[in-house]
Amino acid sequence: MSEERQTGREDRLAQGEGSAEIEPPPRVLDTAEPVASREPPPTLEPAAAVGAVRSRRARLTRWWSVASPNLRGSAYMMAALLVYAVMVGAIKHVGGVIPLVQILLIRQIVMSLVLLAMSRGGLRPMLRTRRPGLQVIRSILTLTAMLCGFTAVIQIPLAQATAIGFSQVLFVTIAAVIVLKEVVDARRWIATVIGFLGVLVMLKPSSEGLDTFALLAVAGALLNAGITVSVRMLAATERTDTILIWQGMVMMVALAIPTWLWWVPPDATQWFWLIVLSLFGTAGQWLITRAYQVGEAAALAPLDFSRLLLASFTGFVFFAEIPALSTWIGAAIVIGATLYTIRKNARTLPREPAAP
């Protein structure tokens, strides 16, 4: 700035004029500090995120507390079907090399270890039961059903074995009325029958299509219906872990000698899949047992139809099994029956009026 210009400015200031004309000194931007740092730091975002999570959890807890028993049972059932899809795919993958009795024994050992690890009181409280005879009967039914059903899964296409197993629905509904004295309304009967008709569309039953493995699938479905009814009978007095630990003990005793006779040493990859199917099988066993403890057997049975989509997806992606057109037509019928059942199960309990 020149000397004359500086002198003139000082004269004007001395006279009290032109204060608004003072040129501010040029602002030097501190390049060491990023521009974004001048904004207030988002210190409230983590707290807000935690609050949002807690709010959602509280809403979910309130919804669960007022949900009907059949709706809670439906939630357990759908979760069980998802994890069972992984287990069945793994069994089909290793079942061509590892004997089925060996697979089931390893599965039961892993399940029992998981139950013991999660138990707070140890083994003795888990073994305490008021109905040991029914526990043994249910465990034998479970073992026989697994041998029949998983043999069919290994030997025939996954979607076909799953579809045949849907005949369990009629068996469960009939047994729920005869044995459990459950009341089944006309709409639920209609949903069950329509869903079973969808299964028949997929199967295209004929004399040529029924072979030994298909009959084993039907036998597995009948035995699974017996398992469902027995779980409902045990639900009043037995804990879920008690039912599962008794099943594990009975099956390990029954499978020990056949496994020893037919043992095939698994390699590292096969051990991985054996552990995976065991863990997922344990989770699925607990979820489906809990489902039938909470909800009515006849109300939950039609939900089993959704296994068809999971089986078709698994068979296509991992085993190159392409479902036929009849499978998709039947699947549409099955989905309609399943969605209707979920909607009917969603009736909530009446809320108490608020206190004045």
From TrEMBL:
<feature type="transmembrane region" description="Helical">
    <location>
        <begin position="73"/>
        <end position="91"/>
    </location>
</feature>
<feature type="transmembrane region" description="Helical">
    <location>
        <begin position="300"/>
        <end position="319"/>
    </location>
</feature>
<dbReference type="Pfam" id="PF00892">
    <property type="entry name" value="EamA"/>
</dbReference>
<feature type="compositionally biased region" description="Basic and acidic residues">
    <location>
        <begin position="1"/>
        <end position="14"/>
    </location>
</feature>
<keyword id="KW-0472">Membrane</keyword>
<dbReference type="InterPro" id="IPR000620">
    <property type="entry name" value="EamA_dom"/>
</dbReference>
<dbReference type="InterPro" id="IPR037185">
    <property type="entry name" value="EmrE-like"/>
</dbReference>
<feature type="transmembrane region" description="Helical">
    <location>
        <begin position="136"/>
        <end position="156"/>
    </location>
</feature>
<feature type="transmembrane region" description="Helical">
    <location>
        <begin position="162"/>
        <end position="180"/>
    </location>
</feature>
<feature type="domain" description="EamA">
    <location>
        <begin position="73"/>
        <end position="203"/>
    </location>
</feature>
<keyword id="KW-0812">Transmembrane</keyword>
<feature type="transmembrane region" description="Helical">
    <location>
        <begin position="97"/>
        <end position="116"/>
    </location>
</feature>
<feature type="region of interest" description="Disordered">
    <location>
        <begin position="1"/>
        <end position="48"/>
    </location>
</feature>
<feature type="transmembrane region" description="Helical">
    <location>
        <begin position="243"/>
        <end position="264"/>
    </location>
</feature>
<protein>
    <submittedName>
        <fullName>DMT family transporter</fullName>
    </submittedName>
</protein>
<feature type="domain" description="EamA">
    <location>
        <begin position="214"/>
        <end position="341"/>
    </location>
</feature>
<feature type="transmembrane region" description="Helical">
    <location>
        <begin position="189"/>
        <end position="207"/>
    </location>
</feature>
<keyword id="KW-1133">Transmembrane helix</keyword>
<feature type="transmembrane region" description="Helical">
    <location>
        <begin position="270"/>
        <end position="288"/>
    </location>
</feature>
<feature type="transmembrane region" description="Helical">
    <location>
        <begin position="213"/>
        <end position="231"/>
    </location>
</feature>
